[in-house]
Specification:
Structural class: mainly alpha
Order of helices and strands: HHHHHH
Strand content: under 5%
Distance between the termini: 51 Å
Length: 109
Amino acid sequence: MHNTNVQSHSNGPNELQAIEVILELIKSKCIPVLLYGLEACHLVKAQLHSLDFLANCVFMKLFRTNNIEIVKCCQYYLSFNLWSVMLAKHTDKFEDKFQNNCTFGKYLL
C-alpha cells in the first residue's frame, strides 16, 4: 500500500502510521461534517477549489511540504480523494434519491 515516496516524506514507520490514523479520522469524522448538506447546494468552481485547497493544506501540514506534486503523490498512494470529488459522489447519490422519491415529488406539485 505504501510507496517509498510517501515514506520518504515522513520520519519513519511510526509517523506514517500516525498520519494514516489522522487521515482515517478526517475521512470518518471531519469530511462527513464538512460535506453535510453541500450535496443539496450548487457550488461554483471557486468554492470547489477552496475545498480542495483545504485538503491540500492538510497534506502539506502532515507531510511538512509546500510542494503540490508531493502532496498529489501522497494523496494518490494513500487513496485520498479530493473533497470536491467526494462531494460530486455525494451529490450524485443525493440527486438520484431526490429524483427517485415519488412521494416527495407529489408534494412539490
